[in-house]
Design a protein that fits this description.
Layout (H helix, E strand, L loop, with lengths): L2 H15 L2 H7 L4 E5 L3 E6 L2 H22 L5 E6 L7 H7 L4 H4 L26 H12 L8 E5 L5 H15 L4 E5 H13 L3 H6 L6 E5 L8 H16 L3 E6 L11 H7 L3 E5 L4 H14 L6 H10 L4 H18 L5 H7 L13 H12 L3 H5 L5 H16 L5 H7 L5 H17 L1 H15 L5
Parallel strand pairs: 2-3, 4-7, 4-8, 5-6, 6-7
Antiparallel strand pairs: 1-2
């Protein structure tokens, strides 16, 4: 099979493993650029999709591609459709120390990465509640804050914290811990149902003392998977086994999630991780710099911390670029070099979007059809996303009230004013809505780098 045939075949399999909404959102405008001996270069439309693939879908994509070509051992995501010409040279010239290689090891029994520990987890005002709850858990697993539900945006440290809990309990208390990305568990359940081995799968959790499930929002819309997971959850909970969960949003706003699961998720402790403040970003950069054995001037750290505000993973990505350059060129990093190297990461991104894009993203976020939002329906589940769109058009895109009304079929502009004011007032007292609006703005205004 050539590149196009291989990717079309892979997409057909991937479509069976995730929800239609997620498939249409993330896999549109992707293609294989090149199949090398053991590696595939996969084109993605922008940096947001690249990051999401690397953190959320990588294992699934790699597994599907390996099933089509067993020689494939690596997938690299490239923004746009140009094959990087420097890749092979860089691989040959860079050598890594043993400590750097350790960051890629995964424990096959637990699914945990040993690099994630409490010792290198930076605590600040943005994550102190989640950290404190985690510390309480490792002192008395299964007896307090069960389940622990941690939520927050992409790249803010949820996975680090969850795996730090798992690594501590596994190493220091010799507990049987298992860590799953939700997509991996979904895949296991689907395969077990197909092969009539679901009871065997459930039994495999019998001796688990701590279950850690990352990104539970991907359970959304998968009724059979939710049903089977409910029984696994209940069994462990009734045996006082510790359960730790993460999501990009609180349980009550995960769409198409069974009420009994929402109730279980909300039955323990819910802790959010918000955006890190400047002091926390500086502390994170210092810790990560030490890990990577790179000595950066304070003015360089200040430049990065001032300009990269929304994502810890982007902070680490910036450090990786500087560390690689320093290693290759054998040069000290200064502010001038930093600005040149990071110009594609740090640059003013004007708020450019369209009504259609906002409508699409909001409808998918709240799992409501676009045509229902644009209709005259006044059901609660339709009114909220409709009002959110009106608010975003007014406050982020500077649309006039009559212009917004025109987008919604010529409604009276006073209806739009009422909707915008209602959202504004709600934001003053509703932290969950604030978090939702922040996530939507990140998705809507993510700068495309093609």
């Amino acid at each position: 099979m050539n590149e196009k045939e291989t990717w079309q075949t892979a997409l057909a399999q991937i479509k069976l493993l995730i929800s239609p909404a997620n498939f249409n959102t993330w896999f549109k405008n992707t293609e294989i650029l090149e199949i090398q001996s053991e590696k595939i270069l996969l084109s993605v439309p922008n940096s947001f999709v690249k990051e999401w693939f690397e953190q959320k879908y990588h294992q699934m994509i790699l597994k599907v591609l390996k099933s089509l070509n067993p020689q494939i051992k690596e997938v690299e995501y490239v923004i746009g459709k140009n094959i990087p010409s420097f890749k092979k040279k860089v691989v040959k010239r860079i050598s890594f120390s043993q400590s750097e290689l350790l960051t890629f090891e995964i424990d096959e029994k637990t699914g945990l990465n040993p690099k994630y520990t409490f010792s290198n987890f930076v605590v600040g005002s943005f994550n102190e509640l989640a950290h404190a709850a985690s510390q309480a858990i490792i002192e008395a697993p299964g007896k307090i804050y069960n389940p622990l539900f941690v939520y927050g945006g992409v790249g803010l440290g949820k996975t680090h914290l969850l795996q730090a809990i798992g690594n501590y309990l596994s190493k220091n208390k010799q507990m049987k811990v298992i860590y799953f990305q939700a997509n991996k568990l979904i895949e296991e359940i689907i395969n077990s149902v197909r092969n009539n081995t679901i009871e065997e799968l459930k039994k495999s959790f019998k001796d688990v003392e701590t279950l850690i499930l990352d990104d539970v929002q991907f359970l959304s819309g998968k009724e059979k998977t939710q049903e089977e997971f409910f029984f696994i959850f209940n069994y462990l909970y009734e045996k006082n086994r510790q359960i730790v969960l993460s999501s990009d949003r609180p349980p009550k706003v995960i769409p198409s999630l069974a009420e009994r699961l929402k109730s279980r998720f909300e039955g323990g402790m819910i802790a959010d991780i918000s955006l890190p403040d400047y002091e926390s970003r500086m502390a994170i950069l210092k810790v990560k710099s030490q890990e990577k054995n790179i000595n950066l001037p304070k003015e360089v750290l200040d430049y990065i911390a001032t300009n990269i505000k929304n994502n810890i993973r982007e902070l680490e990505g910036a450090l990786n670029i500087l560390a690689t350059f320093s290693k290759l060129q054998k040069k000290e990093i200064n502010l001038e070099i930093t600005k040149k190297l990071l110009k594609n990461i740090i640059s003013p991104a004007p708020k450019i979007s369209t009504f259609k894009k906002i409508l699409k993203i909001v409808s998918e976020f709240y799992d409501v059809k676009e045509e229902d939002i644009l209709s005259d329906l006044r059901r609660k589940e339709v009114l909220k996303p409709r009002h959110v769109i009106m608010y975003l058009l007014r406050n982020e895109m500077n649309y006039s009230y009559p212009a917004i009304a025109q987008k919604f079929g010529g409604k009276d502009h006073t209806t739009v004013i009422h909707a915008c004011e209602k959202i504004k007032k709600e934001l003053l007292k509703n932290e969950e809505l604030t978090e939702e609006i922040n996530q939507l703005k990140i998705k809507i205004f993510e700068k495309e780098k093609i």
